[in-house]
Design goal:
heterodimer, A: alpha+beta, four-stranded antiparallel sheet, 9 helices, B: alpha/beta, six-stranded mixed sheet, 10 strands
Chain lengths: 298, 228
Amino acid sequence: MRISSFGYTLKQGIKNIWSNKLFSLATIATIAACVFLFSIFYAVVTNFQNIVRQAQTGVAVTVFFDEGLDDARIQEIGQEISKRAEVSRIVFVSAEEAWDSFKENLGEYVDTFGEDNPLADCANYEIYMNDVSMQDSLVSYLQTVTGISEVHKSANVATALTSVNSLIGYVSLGIIFILLAVSVFLISNTVAIGITVRKEEIAIMKLIGATDFVVRAPFLIEGILLGMIGAAIPLVAVYFIYTNVIDYVSTKFSVLSSILVFLSADQIFYTLLPISLIMGVGIGFLGSLFTVRRHLRV
Amino acid sequence: MIILEDVSKSYSTGAPALNGISLHIEPGEFVFIVGDSGSGKSTLIKLLLRELSPTSGKIVVNKVDVGKLRHRKVAKYRRSIGVVFQDFRLLKDRNVYENVAFAQRVIAVPARQIRKNVPSVLSLVGLAEKYKSRPKELSGGEQQRVAVARAIINRPPILLADEPTGNLDPKNSWEIMKLLEQINKNGTTVLVVTHNREIVNAMQKRVITMKKGVIVSDQKKGGYIDED
């Protein structure tokens, strides 16, 4: 396509938007609402997943050793475990460290033990995972390692966190799908009206010898532009809203700062911006493509 | 240039619109096609423009077998035919210049070429001064001249005019016919579908008369046959 032809097509696309001002506005508003909801949803879900991920990093599997196992074997076991794909890091807790830690919870009763260490055989490894959902496969492996007597896992926490994560994923997919369908439907209506309004012009174009592409292109451009505008407006709004909300929550609820670790606006928009723009343009393009194919037999 | 061999066209209901017509039109001819409503004139125009396909028979235009033309090649084929309609079919939201330039824009003629071609063709139809006017600011005759300018700007070898004087007074009708005659003298084959008895009789061109889907007369320098 020549530059001048592209310019002409673009101009016609903009003209279509302008001549159907009301419908164009309605379409932009709907896409904007969809992208706005999607962006808010994305920001919430991403932050929640971040919080869950933070919580997951604290979930560990603990392994205890056979009585009287020598230090060399314990070290060997540590090295073997570290090589596993599920493992992010391991921490060795000696019998003394385990007792010191336990003593803090005993309070006044600690004296009854005197110099004895009741946890003398409780040296262990705390194994932290890359992903809590990998816990079962890790535990199965650990149970087969010679020298390990017991494996303690955080079953409930791991399952709950994994389930919540999956649930959020499915719910968000469902909602986004519905929003997309509504947007495509609305774009389709706007373009269909544009085609009706320009029926005569299209008929003349066809008789003059315009190719299918030339006849269809302005409507595709119209859809893409509507989608782009519809996506850009809520993105700007969400950026300001998000920045202010995390500032407000971080200031007002500073007590919860260790639990509520928010992602910065830049971190969110690094992914959200291209996704939303592609989504807007995609909705516009697909919506108009379906309509043009259905209503514009050229 | 235009060859029809035993062409028929039937619609799903009713009698055939065209019934086995055969026709040869040579390059550079000026031909009137006359006949009452329902005689098949419009169907013939639609077949030539490939808006319809024949039920049977063969149509060859500029060595192109129109009946066998694939959809994706129709656009290119139509560029070889200029069309003028009774109701002008101008774009009301654009001025004279834009209406004529439109025909070049949709076939991707470079902008520089369009700027050169449009004033030239507007001069030919006598509307160079009115290039900024909108269709509603023009008389019927002027609007039809814009439509003629749009039809010939891509230099098609064939010009089809479907009742070009149907909405015009006698003076403007004659001006349009003189313009079409001038275009024909420049080498373009011109087919005019008309009811205008006076013009057909006066111009003494080839006249093909149709009735109920068949050609009833084909006169080299004929006049309007009164069918009553």
